[in-house]
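Protocol step 4 of 6: structure prediction from sequence.
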Amino acid sequence: MRLTLPCLPLSLLLITTTSAAVSKEPVLKAWEVLEGCHLIENQINDGDSFKVAHGDKEFIIRLYYVDCPETYDTYPDRLKDQSRYFSISESEMITFGKAAKTYTKRFLKDEFTVITCWEDARGGKDVRYFGMVSRNNQLLSSELVRNGLARIYGMPAGGWPGGGKPEAYLKQLKQNERAAQQSGTGIWGNAQNSNQLDDLAQIKDRLNTQQTTISSSAFVDSSKTERIILNTADSSELIALPGIGPVLADRIIAARPFIEIDKLADIPGISMKKVDALRHRILLDKPPPQPMTADFYLADSETYLNREAVVRVSRVTQSYLTAPDGFHSVHLETANQGESGGSIPAFIPQEYYDSFVSYYQQPNREFTGLLFQQDSNIVLVYRRK
């Protein structure tokens, strides 16, 4: 079954759908919102195109509005065009293309939402469809531009879910791009000779005062950026940091491990001013998971298995697991003290399901369940009292 959506506010649009059947010759139609999607590992995956599973269906999504660098020289004309746009070498473009691929893979590591009307996105031998991808109230296209890993280029959406204007989102993307240019984030740290920077000085002051938003809370851009773990990050992750290119990334890797962030200033080419600019983007080592989150219990599941566990729920989505008779299956995304804490499936008794859905529409409410192993999956089971 596929759910087609009329023009409604997006707060009403983002509802759970069942698996979407993809026809071989799709016809443009109403927007569809597919929650509970998962990334499929595939050789075609890169920063702006990737294979997706929704229910029992698989398809390839190509992002609207943005173009990430190529990861190989398979399409030389496209690679040359990207190189001219940023005024950097083709080999550097490929390096940043792999960084964009890494970023997208990390962004899609848990469940996410695809918004599409099955518009044909021809490219390569595999059929693909234009779409937008949202996770934790962030759009992947916005985050790629914000982190200097994509240019605003390519197919725009012919409309906007809920009846909004696509122009509003395009303005927001432009604001994100200017912020990345100003801070030298990602590719822009190496693209100092690009013509795209010619008018940056004229609008520098406006970046701090202008705000463009879209009429949907689901598409409001977040300024929070996932931190890079300095002592374990690979080269593609490091060059996504402001002012860190391939050469400095190699020097950082060679100088590890670091016992304090200030030691970065000992590396030739990295000043203390640059270190200060990076502090909010990096951690020395991965911090322990927050209590009352899925990650906290999954990190030591043997200790907590068959015991009660309490998590703070940030969002409830559809689960791909089959629930036992008498239960509904859902997916709980968790967070505590503003930090994301991963997700975990949960089984809810049928008689409590309606009240459960109503209650957990508000975030940060606590859920108590029995941590249980079902086959190879760890789940939370709400116990009847």
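Step 5 (inspection) to follow. The mean pLDDT is 80.
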